[in-house]
Design goal:
There is one protein chain. This protein is mostly helical. It is built from three helices and no strands.
Length: 185
């Protein structure tokens, strides 16, 4: 990423974090423009006054050097002020970005913890449900086993009863046949 892109992104981030910042920066730029205009006007006015003044060349050169020194000093002051403001803005932006990062990090960590708790709770609930289902299946198995045993006993009892009835009928029939044979003799 180039320096210009980085500066642009940083400026966008600053503006997004503080909407009034853009307004303040525009006002500061206007003041700087006015100050620069006044400085340039004063310099040019002074220079013009020197060149059109009815004075010796040596004095004119001396005054020109003085005016240039004043202009250089004024430009250095403005440059230093600009550096200080840029550094302040940069430091302020770093602090805001760090604070934003920390706040966002805390929120994300809280949400992760909340999500972990929900997952843990859901897991525990599912394990409890699974245990209940296992118990229900165990109970159902026992009930089925008891029902099968009861049916088995019932079938045995019916089979014995039917076998006895058949045996009784067969014995009666055999006795009848035996009597009939005795009567025929």
């Amino acid at each position: 990423m180039s320096k210009n892109n980085l500066s642009s992104k940083l400026q966008q981030l600053k503006n997004a974090m503080d909407p009034n910042r853009l307004k303040k920066e525009k006002q500061a730029e206007k003041r700087k423009g006015v100050a620069k205009g006044l400085a340039a006007g004063a310099f040019l006015g002074g220079l013009t006054g020197i060149f059109f003044a009815p004075d010796k060349g040596e004095n004119t050169r001396k005054k020109t050097k003085e005016e240039l020194a004043k202009a250089k000093e004024k430009i250095e002051e403005e440059l230093n002020e600009t550096k200080v403001k840029v550094n302040e803005n940069l430091e302020e932006s770093k602090e805001k970005i760090t604070a934003f990062y920390e706040e966002t990090k805390e929120v994300v960590e809280e949400k992760v913890e909340t999500l972990k708790e929900k997952v843990k709770t859901e897991k525990e609930d599912m394990e409890e449900d699974l245990d209940e289902i296992k118990e229900d299946l165990k109970d159902a198995k026992e009930d089925i086993k008891d029902d099968v045993e009861a049916k088995k006993d019932e079938v045995k009892s019916k089979a014995k009863s039917e076998a006895k009835n058949i045996a009784d009928k067969t014995a009666e029939e055999a006795e009848k046949v035996s009597r009939e044979l005795d009567n025929k003799k």
